[in-house]
Task: structure prediction
Amino acid sequence: MKKRHFTLCSMIMALSLLLAAGCGAGEEMPGETNAQTETAAQTETEAESPTASQTQETVGSKSGETDLDQPLQAMYLTSQNGDYLFVGTENGVLFTAPVPDELYDETGEKITADQLTVGSVLDIYGNNIMLESYPGQYPGVTKMTVVQKGTQEDIAPYQHLIDEIYTEPDPSQLPYMDVEYTTDQAIVTAALSQGNYTWSYTDENGQSQSSTGCGDHILAWDNLAEISLPKPTDLKIIADGLQSVTVTRWPVSMQGTEQYDTGETIETEERDGAFWIPQAESGYIYLIQGVWEQGEIEYGFCTK
Result:
């Protein structure tokens, strides 16, 4: 440290003498001196930390950066609920992912999601960000290409993974209903509030049973699930065994009133074996009347 201080002082004294002499050539010296000082400082820093550049390169190679052109290869499975499931062919990790419009078969021809066959291996392109959940979620998929077409037999090694996330439903239990939608960060699944219902089933002794729940209109429900929708968003309705739906909505300003007949009927769409509410908007109360073989159930939510 003393040697460095002495060198810097000497340089400052030399500079002061040149300025005092008013030398024309000395007008360019400050710039030259600064360059020399920076070079000296850089040299000393490198001498004190000779592996700095090597460390930066190593950190960069371990920082999780990936080549977005490098696909994740996975096999397409299907659950008992009909969800899109995939399993990494290299790591065996089970995950869900939306099937994008950019979907191609092994010949390069564009296909639709309902043309995918179970057991097929695909190259999956996207932002390479897998959300931590079980199963995992890969919302940032942009493109899928079939590498090898498969069959039901090909998924046999992974059947135990499918079985782990499936539980045989109790026939007396009313089915749950969720809506699923995609944001910029994730695939979101939201549970809906349950209302009036009629339900019939056969118990373990083979006897027919039935139950009925009669309550308030949705505009009078105390606890209503809330969903945040910053922009109009397609909502996928998820419920086991669902045969048909009717969707009605009211502005949230109608909550607590009896203006039941002012509801607006929303046309749903059928895609990939599921019912969808297209372009759901914030500021509404949505009522979904679902029909099953065993009966009918009301579900609802509000958007904000």
Observations:
- The radius of gyration is 32 Å.
- The longest strand covers residues 193-202.
- Helices lie at 2-20, 29-48, 52-62, 159-164.
- Residues 1-66 have pLDDT under 50 and may be disordered.
